[in-house]
Write a structure and sequence with these properties.
Helix content: 40-55%
CATH architecture of the largest domain: Orthogonal Bundle
Distance between the termini: 25 Å
Shape: globular
Bound molecules: s-citryldethia Coenzyme A
CATH class of the largest domain: Mainly Alpha
Structural class: alpha+beta
Number of helices: 16
Number of strands: 7
Oligomer: single chain
CATH superfamily of the largest domain: Citrate Synthase, domain 1
Protein backbone atom coordinates (compact mmCIF):
# COMPACT_ATOMS: atom_id res chain seq x y z
CA UNK A 1 0.00 0.00 0.00
CA UNK A 2 1.43 3.43 -0.81
CA UNK A 3 2.53 5.01 2.51
CA UNK A 4 0.18 7.93 2.91
CA UNK A 5 2.17 10.26 5.18
CA UNK A 6 0.09 13.39 5.26
CA UNK A 7 -3.28 11.96 6.12
CA UNK A 8 -5.12 8.75 6.03
CA UNK A 9 -7.28 6.95 3.59
CA UNK A 10 -10.92 6.87 4.52
CA UNK A 11 -13.31 4.64 2.77
CA UNK A 12 -17.03 5.12 2.93
CA UNK A 13 -18.38 1.81 1.96
CA UNK A 14 -21.91 0.58 1.88
CA UNK A 15 -23.03 -2.88 2.66
CA UNK A 16 -26.58 -3.76 1.82
CA UNK A 17 -27.77 -2.98 5.36
CA UNK A 18 -25.73 -0.02 6.64
CA UNK A 19 -23.25 2.78 5.83
CA UNK A 20 -19.92 2.39 7.62
CA UNK A 21 -16.90 4.71 7.62
CA UNK A 22 -13.42 3.20 7.74
CA UNK A 23 -10.30 5.12 8.61
CA UNK A 24 -7.03 3.84 7.21
CA UNK A 25 -8.32 0.37 6.83
CA UNK A 26 -9.80 -1.47 4.00
CA UNK A 27 -13.26 -2.90 3.71
CA UNK A 28 -13.66 -6.52 4.69
CA UNK A 29 -12.94 -8.72 1.76
CA UNK A 30 -16.39 -10.20 1.66
CA UNK A 31 -18.13 -9.62 -1.63
CA UNK A 32 -21.18 -7.68 -0.45
CA UNK A 33 -19.15 -4.48 0.17
CA UNK A 34 -19.03 -1.96 -2.62
CA UNK A 35 -16.92 1.17 -2.80
CA UNK A 36 -19.15 4.18 -3.21
CA UNK A 37 -16.80 7.01 -2.38
CA UNK A 38 -13.29 7.37 -1.19
CA UNK A 39 -10.91 10.14 -0.37
CA UNK A 40 -7.50 10.81 1.11
CA UNK A 41 -7.75 13.11 4.11
CA UNK A 42 -5.10 15.82 4.15
CA UNK A 43 -4.69 18.68 6.55
CA UNK A 44 -6.61 20.96 4.19
CA UNK A 45 -9.32 18.38 3.59
CA UNK A 46 -10.06 15.36 1.38
CA UNK A 47 -8.61 14.95 -2.14
CA UNK A 48 -11.49 13.99 -4.44
CA UNK A 49 -11.54 10.75 -6.33
CA UNK A 50 -13.33 11.00 -9.63
CA UNK A 51 -13.35 8.03 -12.03
CA UNK A 52 -11.88 9.02 -15.37
CA UNK A 53 -10.93 12.37 -13.75
CA UNK A 54 -14.49 13.53 -14.55
CA UNK A 55 -14.86 17.17 -13.50
CA UNK A 56 -11.26 17.43 -12.28
CA UNK A 57 -9.25 20.51 -13.33
CA UNK A 58 -5.79 19.32 -14.35
CA UNK A 59 -4.38 22.49 -15.91
CA UNK A 60 -4.90 26.21 -16.49
CA UNK A 61 -5.27 26.97 -20.21
CA UNK A 62 -6.03 29.95 -22.45
CA UNK A 63 -6.27 27.90 -25.64
CA UNK A 64 -9.96 26.99 -25.77
CA UNK A 65 -13.06 26.97 -23.62
CA UNK A 66 -16.13 24.75 -23.79
CA UNK A 67 -19.51 25.58 -22.26
CA UNK A 68 -20.98 22.09 -22.08
CA UNK A 69 -24.40 23.24 -20.93
CA UNK A 70 -24.86 25.94 -23.59
CA UNK A 71 -23.01 24.06 -26.35
CA UNK A 72 -20.40 26.73 -26.94
CA UNK A 73 -16.74 26.42 -28.00
CA UNK A 74 -14.19 29.22 -28.39
CA UNK A 75 -10.57 29.03 -29.57
CA UNK A 76 -8.55 31.79 -27.83
CA UNK A 77 -11.90 33.52 -27.18
CA UNK A 78 -13.14 33.40 -30.80
CA UNK A 79 -16.42 31.44 -31.26
CA UNK A 80 -15.97 28.33 -33.38
CA UNK A 81 -18.82 29.48 -35.63
CA UNK A 82 -16.85 32.62 -36.61
CA UNK A 83 -13.70 30.63 -37.34
CA UNK A 84 -15.69 28.12 -39.40
CA UNK A 85 -17.20 30.96 -41.40
CA UNK A 86 -14.18 33.21 -41.95
CA UNK A 87 -10.91 31.41 -41.07
CA UNK A 88 -8.73 28.69 -42.60
CA UNK A 89 -7.01 25.77 -40.89
CA UNK A 90 -3.62 27.46 -41.31
CA UNK A 91 -4.85 30.70 -39.74
CA UNK A 92 -6.59 28.77 -36.93
CA UNK A 93 -3.42 26.75 -36.31
CA UNK A 94 -1.48 30.01 -35.93
CA UNK A 95 -4.16 31.33 -33.53
CA UNK A 96 -4.00 28.19 -31.39
CA UNK A 97 -0.20 28.03 -31.30
CA UNK A 98 0.62 31.74 -30.85
CA UNK A 99 -2.53 32.99 -29.06
CA UNK A 100 -3.71 35.63 -31.52
CA UNK A 101 -4.86 35.98 -35.12
CA UNK A 102 -1.89 36.57 -37.46
CA UNK A 103 -1.30 39.70 -39.51
CA UNK A 104 -1.17 39.07 -43.25
CA UNK A 105 2.64 38.95 -43.15
CA UNK A 106 2.64 36.58 -40.17
CA UNK A 107 0.17 34.27 -41.93
CA UNK A 108 2.10 34.31 -45.19
CA UNK A 109 5.30 33.44 -43.33
CA UNK A 110 3.62 30.71 -41.23
CA UNK A 111 1.92 29.24 -44.27
CA UNK A 112 5.17 29.26 -46.26
CA UNK A 113 6.93 27.41 -43.42
CA UNK A 114 4.15 24.79 -43.27
CA UNK A 115 4.30 24.23 -47.04
CA UNK A 116 8.08 23.88 -46.95
CA UNK A 117 7.88 21.27 -44.17
CA UNK A 118 5.31 18.96 -45.82
CA UNK A 119 7.88 16.66 -47.40
CA UNK A 120 8.84 13.34 -45.79
CA UNK A 121 12.38 12.05 -45.27
CA UNK A 122 13.06 9.41 -47.98
CA UNK A 123 13.47 6.68 -45.34
CA UNK A 124 9.98 7.42 -44.01
CA UNK A 125 8.56 7.16 -47.53
CA UNK A 126 10.28 3.77 -47.89
CA UNK A 127 8.96 2.69 -44.49
CA UNK A 128 5.40 3.45 -45.64
CA UNK A 129 5.96 1.08 -48.57
CA UNK A 130 7.24 -1.79 -46.42
CA UNK A 131 4.38 -2.22 -43.95
CA UNK A 132 2.74 -5.57 -43.16
CA UNK A 133 -0.59 -6.17 -44.95
CA UNK A 134 -3.67 -4.30 -43.65
CA UNK A 135 -2.23 -2.42 -40.68
CA UNK A 136 -4.58 -0.10 -38.77
CA UNK A 137 -4.00 3.36 -40.32
CA UNK A 138 -3.61 4.90 -36.85
CA UNK A 139 -0.82 2.39 -36.13
CA UNK A 140 0.79 3.43 -39.42
CA UNK A 141 0.57 7.07 -38.31
CA UNK A 142 2.20 6.27 -34.96
CA UNK A 143 5.06 4.50 -36.77
CA UNK A 144 5.49 7.27 -39.33
CA UNK A 145 5.58 10.10 -36.76
CA UNK A 146 8.03 8.18 -34.56
CA UNK A 147 10.17 7.28 -37.59
CA UNK A 148 10.21 10.85 -38.93
CA UNK A 149 11.50 12.06 -35.55
CA UNK A 150 14.75 10.16 -36.15
CA UNK A 151 15.45 12.30 -39.21
CA UNK A 152 14.20 15.62 -37.85
CA UNK A 153 17.08 18.11 -38.32
CA UNK A 154 15.84 19.96 -35.23
CA UNK A 155 15.45 16.81 -33.10
CA UNK A 156 18.15 17.86 -30.61
CA UNK A 157 16.99 21.46 -30.32
CA UNK A 158 15.11 22.17 -27.09
CA UNK A 159 14.89 25.95 -27.40
CA UNK A 160 11.44 27.39 -28.09
CA UNK A 161 12.32 28.13 -31.71
CA UNK A 162 13.55 24.56 -32.20
CA UNK A 163 10.45 23.05 -30.59
CA UNK A 164 8.14 25.22 -32.71
CA UNK A 165 10.02 24.10 -35.83
CA UNK A 166 9.45 20.46 -34.82
CA UNK A 167 5.80 21.21 -34.08
CA UNK A 168 5.22 22.79 -37.51
CA UNK A 169 7.04 19.91 -39.19
CA UNK A 170 4.79 17.31 -37.51
CA UNK A 171 1.59 19.24 -38.34
CA UNK A 172 2.77 19.71 -41.94
CA UNK A 173 3.96 16.11 -42.44
CA UNK A 174 1.01 14.16 -41.01
CA UNK A 175 -1.22 14.84 -44.08
CA UNK A 176 1.60 13.65 -46.34
CA UNK A 177 2.07 10.49 -44.24
CA UNK A 178 -1.63 9.62 -44.49
CA UNK A 179 -1.86 10.32 -48.23
CA UNK A 180 1.40 8.51 -49.09
CA UNK A 181 0.31 5.47 -47.07
CA UNK A 182 -3.05 5.38 -48.83
CA UNK A 183 -1.67 5.84 -52.35
CA UNK A 184 0.90 3.07 -51.70
CA UNK A 185 -1.66 0.58 -50.32
CA UNK A 186 -3.90 1.03 -53.40
CA UNK A 187 -0.90 0.59 -55.72
CA UNK A 188 -0.88 4.18 -56.99
CA UNK A 189 2.15 6.47 -57.25
CA UNK A 190 2.48 8.88 -54.34
CA UNK A 191 1.60 12.48 -55.21
CA UNK A 192 4.13 15.01 -53.84
CA UNK A 193 2.70 18.02 -51.94
CA UNK A 194 1.69 21.04 -54.03
CA UNK A 195 3.06 24.25 -52.46
CA UNK A 196 0.37 26.28 -54.24
CA UNK A 197 -2.43 24.57 -52.29
CA UNK A 198 -3.41 25.27 -48.68
CA UNK A 199 -3.31 22.57 -45.98
CA UNK A 200 -6.77 21.18 -46.64
CA UNK A 201 -6.70 21.30 -50.45
CA UNK A 202 -3.20 19.82 -50.56
CA UNK A 203 -4.27 16.79 -48.54
CA UNK A 204 -7.19 16.04 -50.90
CA UNK A 205 -4.83 16.55 -53.85
CA UNK A 206 -2.22 14.11 -52.47
CA UNK A 207 -4.93 11.61 -51.57
CA UNK A 208 -6.86 11.62 -54.87
CA UNK A 209 -4.08 12.63 -57.28
CA UNK A 210 -6.11 15.52 -58.67
CA UNK A 211 -6.80 19.10 -57.64
CA UNK A 212 -9.93 19.16 -55.44
CA UNK A 213 -13.14 21.02 -56.23
CA UNK A 214 -12.67 24.42 -54.53
CA UNK A 215 -15.98 24.22 -52.69
CA UNK A 216 -15.18 20.77 -51.29
CA UNK A 217 -11.66 21.85 -50.33
CA UNK A 218 -13.28 24.67 -48.34
CA UNK A 219 -15.68 22.24 -46.63
CA UNK A 220 -12.71 20.04 -45.66
CA UNK A 221 -10.84 23.13 -44.42
CA UNK A 222 -13.77 23.90 -42.11
CA UNK A 223 -13.89 20.29 -40.90
CA UNK A 224 -10.19 20.58 -39.96
CA UNK A 225 -10.88 23.82 -38.06
CA UNK A 226 -13.72 22.13 -36.15
CA UNK A 227 -11.47 19.20 -35.17
CA UNK A 228 -8.36 21.25 -34.39
CA UNK A 229 -8.75 21.72 -30.63
CA UNK A 230 -11.00 20.72 -27.76
CA UNK A 231 -9.42 21.27 -24.36
CA UNK A 232 -8.13 18.38 -22.26
CA UNK A 233 -9.72 15.54 -24.22
CA UNK A 234 -8.11 12.12 -23.76
CA UNK A 235 -5.59 12.41 -26.59
CA UNK A 236 -4.53 15.95 -25.69
CA UNK A 237 -4.15 14.90 -22.06
CA UNK A 238 -2.07 11.92 -23.16
CA UNK A 239 0.26 14.28 -25.03
CA UNK A 240 0.50 16.56 -21.99
CA UNK A 241 1.29 13.71 -19.61
CA UNK A 242 4.11 12.54 -21.89
CA UNK A 243 5.47 16.07 -22.34
CA UNK A 244 5.25 16.80 -18.60
CA UNK A 245 8.14 14.34 -18.06
CA UNK A 246 10.15 16.66 -20.38
CA UNK A 247 10.08 14.00 -23.07
CA UNK A 248 10.12 15.26 -26.69
CA UNK A 249 7.23 16.62 -28.76
CA UNK A 250 7.27 13.66 -31.20
CA UNK A 251 6.81 11.22 -28.29
CA UNK A 252 3.95 13.36 -27.01
CA UNK A 253 2.23 13.30 -30.43
CA UNK A 254 2.69 9.52 -30.71
CA UNK A 255 1.04 9.14 -27.28
CA UNK A 256 -1.85 11.28 -28.47
CA UNK A 257 -2.31 9.29 -31.69
CA UNK A 258 -2.54 6.11 -29.65
CA UNK A 259 -5.22 7.63 -27.42
CA UNK A 260 -7.23 9.09 -30.32
CA UNK A 261 -7.42 5.66 -32.00
CA UNK A 262 -9.88 4.37 -29.39
CA UNK A 263 -13.58 4.05 -30.43
CA UNK A 264 -14.71 6.05 -27.39
CA UNK A 265 -12.66 8.99 -28.69
CA UNK A 266 -11.49 9.62 -32.25
CA UNK A 267 -12.37 6.18 -33.52
CA UNK A 268 -16.12 6.84 -33.31
CA UNK A 269 -16.47 8.62 -36.68
CA UNK A 270 -15.56 5.50 -38.65
CA UNK A 271 -18.02 3.42 -36.60
CA UNK A 272 -20.85 5.85 -37.29
CA UNK A 273 -20.70 5.08 -41.04
CA UNK A 274 -20.54 1.37 -40.26
CA UNK A 275 -23.67 1.78 -38.13
CA UNK A 276 -25.48 3.71 -40.92
CA UNK A 277 -24.67 0.88 -43.33
CA UNK A 278 -25.91 -1.72 -40.83
CA UNK A 279 -29.21 0.15 -40.44
CA UNK A 280 -29.57 0.51 -44.22
CA UNK A 281 -32.67 2.71 -44.35
CA UNK A 282 -34.34 5.45 -42.24
CA UNK A 283 -37.37 3.28 -41.42
CA UNK A 284 -35.09 0.80 -39.61
CA UNK A 285 -33.30 3.45 -37.53
CA UNK A 286 -35.73 3.59 -34.62
CA UNK A 287 -35.70 -0.16 -34.05
CA UNK A 288 -31.87 -0.25 -34.25
CA UNK A 289 -31.47 2.54 -31.68
CA UNK A 290 -34.06 1.15 -29.27
CA UNK A 291 -32.43 -2.29 -29.43
CA UNK A 292 -28.98 -0.77 -28.84
CA UNK A 293 -30.22 1.13 -25.81
CA UNK A 294 -32.02 -1.91 -24.46
CA UNK A 295 -28.80 -3.92 -24.78
CA UNK A 296 -26.85 -1.06 -23.15
CA UNK A 297 -24.77 -0.64 -26.33
CA UNK A 298 -23.29 2.78 -27.13
CA UNK A 299 -24.67 4.53 -30.20
CA UNK A 300 -21.52 5.95 -31.79
CA UNK A 301 -21.39 9.70 -32.38
CA UNK A 302 -23.56 10.52 -29.35
CA UNK A 303 -22.80 11.63 -25.85
CA UNK A 304 -19.90 13.63 -24.48
CA UNK A 305 -18.06 14.04 -21.20
CA UNK A 306 -18.46 17.84 -21.35
CA UNK A 307 -21.31 18.67 -23.75
CA UNK A 308 -24.71 17.91 -22.23
CA UNK A 309 -26.39 19.54 -25.20
CA UNK A 310 -25.82 19.63 -28.94
CA UNK A 311 -22.08 19.75 -29.81
CA UNK A 312 -21.71 23.04 -31.75
CA UNK A 313 -19.30 21.33 -34.15
CA UNK A 314 -21.91 18.70 -35.00
CA UNK A 315 -24.38 21.46 -35.91
CA UNK A 316 -21.98 22.86 -38.53
CA UNK A 317 -20.95 19.44 -39.86
CA UNK A 318 -24.63 18.44 -40.18
CA UNK A 319 -25.21 21.40 -42.51
CA UNK A 320 -22.32 20.31 -44.72
CA UNK A 321 -23.49 16.69 -44.63
CA UNK A 322 -26.94 17.87 -45.82
CA UNK A 323 -25.39 20.06 -48.53
CA UNK A 324 -23.12 17.32 -49.90
CA UNK A 325 -25.93 14.74 -49.75
CA UNK A 326 -27.99 17.02 -52.03
CA UNK A 327 -24.99 17.84 -54.23
CA UNK A 328 -24.39 14.13 -54.84
CA UNK A 329 -28.09 13.34 -54.87
CA UNK A 330 -27.59 10.63 -52.25
CA UNK A 331 -29.55 11.29 -49.06
CA UNK A 332 -29.35 7.74 -47.74
CA UNK A 333 -26.87 8.43 -44.93
CA UNK A 334 -28.21 11.83 -43.90
CA UNK A 335 -31.80 10.60 -43.66
CA UNK A 336 -30.77 7.64 -41.53
CA UNK A 337 -28.59 9.96 -39.43
CA UNK A 338 -31.40 12.46 -38.85
CA UNK A 339 -33.74 9.66 -37.78
CA UNK A 340 -31.14 8.30 -35.35
CA UNK A 341 -30.69 11.81 -33.98
CA UNK A 342 -34.46 12.23 -33.52
CA UNK A 343 -34.78 8.93 -31.62
CA UNK A 344 -31.63 9.40 -29.51
CA UNK A 345 -32.63 12.91 -28.41
CA UNK A 346 -36.16 11.71 -27.62
CA UNK A 347 -34.80 8.79 -25.58
CA UNK A 348 -31.64 10.27 -24.00
CA UNK A 349 -31.79 14.03 -24.50
CA UNK A 350 -32.98 14.42 -20.92
CA UNK A 351 -29.74 12.67 -19.85
CA UNK A 352 -27.69 15.16 -21.87
CA UNK A 353 -26.95 12.74 -24.71
CA UNK A 354 -26.81 14.58 -28.05
CA UNK A 355 -24.85 14.25 -31.32
CA UNK A 356 -21.13 14.93 -30.93
CA UNK A 357 -18.49 15.97 -33.48
CA UNK A 358 -18.15 12.39 -34.74
CA UNK A 359 -21.76 11.87 -35.76
CA UNK A 360 -21.94 13.86 -39.02
CA UNK A 361 -18.21 14.19 -39.82
CA UNK A 362 -18.13 10.74 -41.40
CA UNK A 363 -20.88 11.63 -43.88
CA UNK A 364 -18.91 14.73 -44.93
CA UNK A 365 -15.71 12.72 -45.36
CA UNK A 366 -17.59 10.03 -47.30
CA UNK A 367 -18.67 12.58 -49.93
CA UNK A 368 -15.15 14.05 -50.03
CA UNK A 369 -13.95 10.61 -51.10
CA UNK A 370 -11.92 9.96 -47.96
CA UNK A 371 -11.73 6.20 -47.25
CA UNK A 372 -13.57 5.25 -44.07
CA UNK A 373 -10.53 3.85 -42.27
CA UNK A 374 -8.77 7.20 -42.75
CA UNK A 375 -11.45 9.19 -40.87
CA UNK A 376 -9.57 8.92 -37.56
CA UNK A 377 -6.15 9.69 -39.10
CA UNK A 378 -7.82 12.81 -40.57
CA UNK A 379 -9.02 13.66 -37.06
CA UNK A 380 -5.39 13.28 -35.89
CA UNK A 381 -4.19 15.49 -38.76
CA UNK A 382 -6.50 18.26 -37.56
CA UNK A 383 -5.94 17.78 -33.82
CA UNK A 384 -2.14 17.74 -34.08
CA UNK A 385 -2.19 21.51 -33.61
CA UNK A 386 -4.33 21.27 -30.46
CA UNK A 387 -2.02 18.63 -29.02
CA UNK A 388 1.04 20.77 -29.78
CA UNK A 389 -0.55 23.96 -28.43
CA UNK A 390 -1.38 22.34 -25.08
CA UNK A 391 2.06 20.70 -24.80
CA UNK A 392 3.78 24.06 -25.39
CA UNK A 393 1.45 25.91 -23.01
CA UNK A 394 1.69 23.34 -20.21
CA UNK A 395 5.46 22.74 -20.37
CA UNK A 396 6.08 26.51 -20.24
CA UNK A 397 5.01 26.24 -16.58
CA UNK A 398 5.56 22.54 -16.19
CA UNK A 399 4.81 20.12 -13.38
CA UNK A 400 4.98 16.40 -14.04
CA UNK A 401 1.56 14.75 -13.94
CA UNK A 402 1.42 12.22 -11.13
CA UNK A 403 -2.09 11.57 -9.78
CA UNK A 404 -2.80 9.18 -6.91
CA UNK A 405 -4.69 5.94 -6.62
CA UNK A 406 -6.47 4.57 -3.60
CA UNK A 407 -5.10 1.20 -2.75
CA UNK A 408 -8.00 -1.11 -2.14
CA UNK A 409 -6.07 -4.37 -2.00
CA UNK A 410 -5.28 -6.38 1.16
CA UNK A 411 -3.35 -4.44 3.78
CA UNK A 412 -0.98 -7.27 4.69
CA UNK A 413 -0.47 -10.80 3.32
CA UNK A 414 2.12 -13.31 4.59
CA UNK A 415 4.69 -14.52 2.04
CA UNK A 416 4.14 -18.27 1.68
CA UNK A 417 7.02 -20.37 0.30
CA UNK A 418 6.07 -22.00 -3.01
CA UNK A 419 6.25 -25.52 -1.63
CA UNK A 420 3.58 -24.63 0.91
CA UNK A 421 1.20 -23.04 -1.57
CA UNK A 422 -1.87 -24.99 -2.54
C1 LIG B 1 -14.78 12.69 -29.04
O1 LIG B 1 -13.40 14.83 -24.80
C2 LIG B 1 -13.55 15.37 -25.96
O2 LIG B 1 -13.59 16.56 -26.14
C3 LIG B 1 -13.62 14.39 -27.12
C4 LIG B 1 -13.90 14.98 -28.47
C5 LIG B 1 -12.77 15.86 -28.95
O3 LIG B 1 -13.03 16.77 -29.75
O4 LIG B 1 -11.62 15.56 -28.57
O5 LIG B 1 -15.10 15.73 -28.43
C6 LIG B 1 -14.06 13.89 -29.54
O6 LIG B 1 -14.16 11.79 -28.55
C7 LIG B 1 -16.28 12.67 -29.11
C8 LIG B 1 -16.86 11.36 -28.51
C9 LIG B 1 -16.78 10.24 -29.54
N1 LIG B 1 -17.21 8.96 -28.93
C10 LIG B 1 -18.40 8.41 -29.17
O7 LIG B 1 -19.26 8.91 -29.88
C11 LIG B 1 -18.58 7.05 -28.50
C12 LIG B 1 -19.98 6.98 -27.86
N2 LIG B 1 -20.04 7.93 -26.75
C13 LIG B 1 -19.66 7.47 -25.48
O8 LIG B 1 -19.22 6.23 -25.21
C14 LIG B 1 -19.64 8.48 -24.36
O9 LIG B 1 -20.67 9.35 -24.52
C15 LIG B 1 -18.34 9.22 -24.18
C16 LIG B 1 -17.20 8.28 -24.06
C17 LIG B 1 -18.13 10.14 -25.31
C18 LIG B 1 -18.47 10.03 -22.88
O10 LIG B 1 -18.57 9.12 -21.88
P1 LIG B 1 -18.79 9.52 -20.34
O11 LIG B 1 -18.78 10.99 -20.13
O12 LIG B 1 -17.84 8.69 -19.54
O13 LIG B 1 -20.27 9.08 -20.11
P2 LIG B 1 -20.68 7.71 -19.47
O14 LIG B 1 -20.00 6.58 -20.18
O15 LIG B 1 -20.50 7.81 -17.99
O16 LIG B 1 -22.25 7.62 -19.82
C19 LIG B 1 -23.22 8.28 -18.98
C20 LIG B 1 -24.53 7.60 -19.30
C21 LIG B 1 -24.44 6.07 -19.27
O17 LIG B 1 -25.72 5.59 -18.93
P3 LIG B 1 -25.96 5.05 -17.41
O18 LIG B 1 -24.92 3.98 -17.15
O19 LIG B 1 -25.76 6.28 -16.52
O20 LIG B 1 -27.38 4.52 -17.42
O21 LIG B 1 -24.91 7.93 -20.65
C22 LIG B 1 -24.98 6.74 -21.42
C23 LIG B 1 -24.17 5.70 -20.70
O22 LIG B 1 -24.65 4.41 -21.01
N3 LIG B 1 -24.36 7.02 -22.73
C24 LIG B 1 -24.75 6.48 -23.88
C25 LIG B 1 -23.90 7.02 -24.86
N4 LIG B 1 -23.03 7.84 -24.27
C26 LIG B 1 -23.31 7.84 -22.95
N5 LIG B 1 -25.75 5.61 -24.18
C27 LIG B 1 -25.87 5.27 -25.49
N6 LIG B 1 -25.07 5.74 -26.47
C28 LIG B 1 -24.09 6.62 -26.20
N7 LIG B 1 -23.34 7.08 -27.19
Amino acid sequence: MEKVTSGFVFLTVKCKTQNLKYGYSIPPQNSHWEMISMGVLKEEGPIPYSKGLEGIIAALSAISAIDGMKGKLVYRGIPIEMLAKYSTYEETAYLLLYGELPTKNDLDDFSAQMRELRYLPPKVEECLKELPPNPHPMDVLKVAVAHAALYDPDRLRCCREGVMRKVLRIIAQIPTMIAYYHRTRIGEDVVPPDPDLNHAANFLYMLHGKKPDEEEARIFDVALILHAEHGLNASTFAAMVTASTLSDINSAIVSAIGALKGPLHGGANERVLKMLDEIGSPDKAEEYVLNALKEKRRVMGFGHRVYKTYDPRARILKQYAEYLSDKYNDRRYIEIGKKIEEVMIRELGKKGIFPNVDFYSGIVYHFLGIPRDLFTPVFAMARSVGWAAHVCEYTANNRIFRPRAYYIGPEYVEYVPIEKRR
